[in-house]
Amino acid sequence: MAPFTNPFRRAAAENASGQITVHVKWGRERFNIPIPNADMTPLSQLIGTLSHQTGIPTDQLKLVYKGAVLKDPLLTLSSYGIRDGSNLTMVGKEGPAPAAPAPAAPPVVKKKNKQPDTDSEQVLVDWIRNLVNGVVEPLEASIATFVHQASPGGTNKPRVQQSFEALQREHARLSELLLRGLLDMDGVEIPNGWTEARLERKNGVKRLQGELTRVDDAWGNRKRLAT
């Protein structure tokens, strides 16, 4: 028999970790979006999630909170005063979105990327490039925010400073996602003679490793302040 889990204790643990849920209104639709940590999550990450669920391009999607349009995608949600239970409104580039969007998708569980079975080197090159972009681009804003938060000499610090524990959790999250990308690259099989695909994989590994080094270096500098 599975052990009983106290839901109130679990909720308290989630609150302690910074996890919140925000409510987004889009026409007749309502989305309840879980946020791992409002102090560490940039606006761009929420916009990306909503773009994925609704199909609206990120450059045509705007969020309104308490009557004001949220404009800076690099600011964290907490910098806008967004907290657990906050209600936001989503609008498109030309005004309110249609009343019948695609239904909200359940949380996506990342599956192992399957290499295409192809005789075309260009197909494999494009697949490798898209694989790397799919890892790095959704994390760019989060990485920039983390590096800025962890930098001991950074300027223009956000209103809410992150605790050591919050930065530690974010470092672990970013590192894990980047390492998954590196593992995917390591598993790519390239036929003999496909030099362009081999170079694309090499550049992809270099890009992923560079982002991981940025994250690790920023965290290393922050840890030294705590010792």
UniProtKB/TrEMBL annotation:
Gene3D superfamilies assigned to the protein according to its UniProt record, in alphabetical order: BAG domain (1.20.58.120), Phosphatidylinositol 3-kinase Catalytic Subunit, Chain A, domain 1 (3.10.20.90)
Q: Which GO terms describe its cellular component?
A: cytosol; membrane; nucleus
Q: Name one GO biological process term.
A: protein stabilization
Stretches assigned to the Ubiquitin-like domain: 20-94
What top-level branch of life does the organism fall under?
Answer: Eukaryota
| MF-aspect GO terms | adenyl-nucleotide exchange factor activity; protein-folding chaperone binding
| Location of the region described as Disordered in the Swiss-Prot/TrEMBL record | 94-116
Q: Write the record's keywords in alphabetical order, separated by commas.
A: Chaperone
Pfam families from the UniProt entry: BAG, ubiquitin
Pinpoint the BAG domain residues.
167-219
Which PANTHER family does this one have?
BAG FAMILY MOLECULAR CHAPERONE REGULATOR 1, BCL2-ASSOCIATED ATHANOGENE
Q: What is this protein called?
A: Uncharacterized protein
Tell me which species this is from.
Cutaneotrichosporon oleaginosum
Taxonomic lineage per UniProt? Eukaryota, Fungi, Dikarya, Basidiomycota, Agaricomycotina
